[in-house]
Amino acid sequence: MPTGLPKANSSVAPDDQGWLWTQIKAEARRDAELEPALASYLYSTILSHSSLVRSLSFHLGNKLCSSTLLSTLLYDLFLNAFSFDPSLCSAAVADLRAARERDPACVSYSHCLLNYKGFLACQAHRVAHLLWRQSRQPLALALHSRIADVFAVDIHPAARIGKGILFDHATGVVVGETAVIGNNVSILHHVTLGGTGKVGGDRHPKIGDGVLIGAGATILGNIKIGEGAKVGAGSVVLIDVPPQTTAVGNPARLVGGKEKPSKHEDVPGESMDHTSFISEWSDYII
Amino acid sequence: MPTGLPKANSSVAPDDQGWLWTQIKAEARRDAELEPALASYLYSTILSHSSLVRSLSFHLGNKLCSSTLLSTLLYDLFLNAFSFDPSLCSAAVADLRAARERDPACVSYSHCLLNYKGFLACQAHRVAHLLWRQSRQPLALALHSRIADVFAVDIHPAARIGKGILFDHATGVVVGETAVIGNNVSILHHVTLGGTGKVGGDRHPKIGDGVLIGAGATILGNIKIGEGAKVGAGSVVLIDVPPQTTAVGNPARLVGGKEKPSKHEDVPGESMDHTSFISEWSDYII
Amino acid sequence: MPTGLPKANSSVAPDDQGWLWTQIKAEARRDAELEPALASYLYSTILSHSSLVRSLSFHLGNKLCSSTLLSTLLYDLFLNAFSFDPSLCSAAVADLRAARERDPACVSYSHCLLNYKGFLACQAHRVAHLLWRQSRQPLALALHSRIADVFAVDIHPAARIGKGILFDHATGVVVGETAVIGNNVSILHHVTLGGTGKVGGDRHPKIGDGVLIGAGATILGNIKIGEGAKVGAGSVVLIDVPPQTTAVGNPARLVGGKEKPSKHEDVPGESMDHTSFISEWSDYII
Amino acid sequence: MPTGLPKANSSVAPDDQGWLWTQIKAEARRDAELEPALASYLYSTILSHSSLVRSLSFHLGNKLCSSTLLSTLLYDLFLNAFSFDPSLCSAAVADLRAARERDPACVSYSHCLLNYKGFLACQAHRVAHLLWRQSRQPLALALHSRIADVFAVDIHPAARIGKGILFDHATGVVVGETAVIGNNVSILHHVTLGGTGKVGGDRHPKIGDGVLIGAGATILGNIKIGEGAKVGAGSVVLIDVPPQTTAVGNPARLVGGKEKPSKHEDVPGESMDHTSFISEWSDYII
Amino acid sequence: MPTGLPKANSSVAPDDQGWLWTQIKAEARRDAELEPALASYLYSTILSHSSLVRSLSFHLGNKLCSSTLLSTLLYDLFLNAFSFDPSLCSAAVADLRAARERDPACVSYSHCLLNYKGFLACQAHRVAHLLWRQSRQPLALALHSRIADVFAVDIHPAARIGKGILFDHATGVVVGETAVIGNNVSILHHVTLGGTGKVGGDRHPKIGDGVLIGAGATILGNIKIGEGAKVGAGSVVLIDVPPQTTAVGNPARLVGGKEKPSKHEDVPGESMDHTSFISEWSDYII
Amino acid sequence: MPTGLPKANSSVAPDDQGWLWTQIKAEARRDAELEPALASYLYSTILSHSSLVRSLSFHLGNKLCSSTLLSTLLYDLFLNAFSFDPSLCSAAVADLRAARERDPACVSYSHCLLNYKGFLACQAHRVAHLLWRQSRQPLALALHSRIADVFAVDIHPAARIGKGILFDHATGVVVGETAVIGNNVSILHHVTLGGTGKVGGDRHPKIGDGVLIGAGATILGNIKIGEGAKVGAGSVVLIDVPPQTTAVGNPARLVGGKEKPSKHEDVPGESMDHTSFISEWSDYII
């Protein structure tokens, strides 16, 4: 489980960032040539910028601004954060790769950079999280509020999130204050990592590396979803899920049974295998 | 199941469009007279326009624009699309009728035209789908992204959708790339027509004509929901559902049992009967 | 159950409003001093205003405006509504207290006032509801539409809602036309209080005082959730739930069994106890 | 010369305001019916408002706002000012009448209210002047700056201006800090009432009642332009001009000669006679 | 003098429009390649459009829009006008050529199209004039007001203007209701073609073909400035100026004297010779 | 005459910049405390920034942006320019001092920084000029166009301007491509430094150090206005003016006569003495 600093698979070499940025610009240039109606958008968001960090800061600043929080202020805020903490950019790169590799609907890196609300919400969250750690709570919470309004993705700025994350579709995701998400995790839309009530303290789920959480799953309380575990769509999970097992249903049960649950070998957060457990789901009887 | 071209109930005669537009203008005029505070809004969105297509293009352009995708560009895009493919307008007319007939909270056609995010998201999707079929993917995806941000409705531009569709409330709806939705279907909010993992290809549900899908239902994989079937709220469906039957629960079961499921006679997508199956749901025991 | 006029716990003395507003300004002043980047925002939304009502009207007007519904128009509308019906302000005060007391992530009143989309959506709904009762349906529905777009919270303007309400996270909440929500209720995100089909009339749930409804719960039809009852996350409820009991699962069952359900003593809407029923949930078997 | 309180012709009875407002609404209603493309504009600026003061506050708030001075803030500011000092409204009424009576291109009161930058700048100036007198200089100067940017009319907030004023065309008008303008004055575009240098104190012109100042005239220093005098277009005036006389040229000379200048009978500020002096202009010899 | 329909030098063949548009796109493409920061702007204003008319309509719509007159409405208005009356486009082409040929600071056609407020104000005026002739006065006047606000160019919508016009710098230009401007005229900034007073009727100057009017000149009354005449900067003209002569000074005198004024051979509106008359200006004695 | 690098009085030590910025923040803080309605504006424009350069870049970016040239792009552009060429900032400091010292209506440095369109236009021009010198003409011209639209100040980006400049009121100022303005010059509104016709090359006035140019003066051609000279309001100057002399009238004459013009001792650009020459103006005979 990450302690804020991801380990495996997450060290992105500067060279890699350079390659990715070159790739993104090439994609955008090709799209701009084929589609003049979109060229203005592609130039303003990507092609006029000298780096991924500037492009992302510009795009987030313009997406998240409001009449009372100006785009220039947010742009400054993002630029400063990315400059202060380079790991924010390497995390963004890892997330771009995650989307490209795991989501068959992701046709290009630039598509993810521009259009994926899960990706954008996650990068903005990382900046809010940096502010939170710098004891700048009010600003972190204002940013959090804008992310929740604009993307319908509600991640508390204190929540710790690893690298290589895919928030697929992302609408309706809620992640609570003391939640922790490991590396190479994939989380579908409408997923809740929620708390247990009105008492403060450590009260939200801890999601291990490589976990896959299906659409609409609700995971509540300070419980552990073990490394490489899988949570089926629509499941309600209130108790720890062991590593490499699958929990499904409401309330959730382990596929294969509580005593000897089936163990899979793959990393579901990366393989994105949502549905292969169906045949094993004994009482699934349509 | 539609092959992109709806059949039954979906041929809207031009006369019908004319009648509807006259009706919408009459509603708006009445509202403008009764409510001067709203008159400016009603004139700009409806009463100043010469046709439903222009009104809708204007409204969508202003709803979906951003600081980097200007309203004039989108307005143009919508006008051109509606002009290029008249079936887009007849589909909008069928959807307006569907909302008016099936949703008791829909007090007028103009109410739906102006305020229903499901209706607006669906019309914008149809334009994105046209762009997709014209191999203008980047523009289709940019439009898709705006729809997902503004309406929290995430329909992949490649998804094929019939006519006479009601997306009721609509927030949180997710429809994947290879999903197909027939005619006269009603889909509540938070419904997912999702895929099966990281492998591409045909991997999303096929929804037959006249189907009703309850709030929060999650339907995953390249499965068939048969004509006139009903999926209960909150259900998780991973296997085909036969025509005219009802699937409920997580995991979903057929009402009446797998072997001899109860068959209903009505078209649930039109009758909107959400709850009559309760008495038959044998283990529903509060 | 409220008949539109809340009773218990809801009379907020003017003195109390004054105290709260003083407190909010003190919080905002402190934050503005510590965080110059946010000071402009805090002055425009809070510190430049002479009352909570003006601050809230300004903030909602700027949040909910669009290119066709100007902020000045909405600001006027809110100011007039709060002036016409002082109970709107006392309800806002009770809601601010509810968030501060029940949500451990709510660090200050000003945080809730500025950033909680559930709080803001609820106050805007109350104004829409006032318009509805004044037979100004078109304006009420236009406001409703803006709330649904901006906050992804969809509360029909006819729905009656008590005081001391916490819509926590709030994204995806849907509340139907004839729903009634009592006082001191807490409702998590993705909760649906839905109808039963295409027939009009009284068709939505009635939620008693002090009820707690977990994330993603779907409650359908004109049924009663008794005072102090609890509905577990992800539950699908189609039948009445007795007072002080807990319904969980899909379909929902009463904890302790249908015949002799366990009764709790607390007011779950205030204690926010989401998960203590787990040990009693007999078939919860991970 | 006015001492801030105009005398003649300027007491506008409340009844008169009522009549004018009724007239303006009738004009706007007629235009909205004939021109649907403009109806939205007319409803938002005039027809949705309950009084001239609200309409004017709305219109000025939306014209003068910027990304850092929001329309809601300005709207509030204008409403409060008009409410605090009713003479602001009667001055606006007198100015509307002046434009309608003196400018043959002014086809209606609503045309002036909506479109005359001179009229709008003058009303906004009056509010800035009120703020100045209330020792709220920074706000007065910020408003002044917006007026100068938006209308290219630069009237120092300390300048005192009577009633029944017509700033015709208005672009480029500059009026200095200690200038005073009487009642029933007409001033064309590019007119400067300027100072004498870097020394403070009373250093700008005093314009008597009924004066007419032609386009591009430059009047500098603490000099008097007597009641009913006329200053020709393009004149440069640095010395007092006696009442009922005409000064023309650069440097300005009195028509008829310094010793026995021609005296006219009419009130040029009202008759708008720009050019009848030509025949008397002895050396005008094309 | 034009009767609304220009004759000489103004018939622009469609082929010529095509050539110019191709040229403008080539210029914009070159600039976009050299200056990525400007590429987004160039694509949105020029390169994404299929014709000069669409580009100009888009640009004017976005320049002239306000919070109460939306860009989409104006865009529509311009598109419709250009489509209804093709002479509007040929006039724009002639004006682009005029700027390119006469203004040494005009480095390209695209520079004029995008940046010359005089050019843009003139094209918008032509649309306002069309509306005026169609008896749509209120809309014409609203457009006029926006042009005067945004460009500080105030041309009454009834004024008739020929082709091949250069409004150089343009700030502060005022052209009255019954003014007529011929073909191939050049008018510098701060020029007034004004009226004579409060009486209606034909009361503004008539400017012949090929006239050049210097900066700050004020021309008042229903007088004729003959073909090929020249009016010096800062002149005040109240009497007819014969063809091919030069009027200078305040009040204006003819160069060479009233009786035998010097006649020049060139077309000053095209040669832009501002200052060659100096040596002849007898009393010019610095 | 400056060669782009000002000499006298224009070297601003970094310490001086620091002192001025401290002073501006103190002024803004005092104003924010006294005027809560303006505090948001003061924080966003001044108090949230760490330096004069950032404050100015923010303010200009928000003033000059449009729907097709975003504030974030302009903000970046200004920040980069100020960072690239520190003399831009020292020139801004000298201009702030000039306004404060010479204009009795300038009550504070922050007042000038925020509200003086002449000051803001001049700083933005300096950035456009830097771009011009860097051979980035299209961007320089686009910025020039925005300055001309927003401030009605039209300074060609190639024009060279010294330090310690006061453009007072500024509306309508036009400065041509090859014009040069020295240090410590004061220029009133409506002043033209214009060219001579359609031929390119060096064709605009050269203004010496310490010159004062009165309102509405028109100076045409490649002529010299000598150091410390004065040009009266409304003058039309087409021939060189010797140092320390005064030119007035249309056409301009030297005060004291062509042969032995009166020479003054002061630096009119600093003393701002507009009118003391009146008694000497022999034929000024009102």
UniProtKB/TrEMBL annotation, chains A, B, C, D, E, F:
Which PROSITE patterns has this protein been placed in? HEXAPEP_TRANSFERASES
Q: Which SMART domains match?
A: SATase_N (SM00971)
> What Pfam families does the record point to?
Hexapep, Hexapep_2, SATase_N
Q: Name one GO molecular function term.
A: serine O-acetyltransferase activity
Q: What are the Serine acetyltransferase N-terminal domain coordinates in residue numbering?
A: 20-124
Q: What is its EC number?
A: 2.3.1.30
Name the pathway it acts in: Amino-acid biosynthesis; L-cysteine biosynthesis; L-cysteine from L-serine: step 1/2
Q: Where are the transmembrane segments?
A: none
UniProt GO BP:
cysteine biosynthetic process from serine
Q: Return the protein name.
A: serine O-acetyltransferase
**Naturally occurring in which organism (per UniProt):** Glycine max (Soybean)
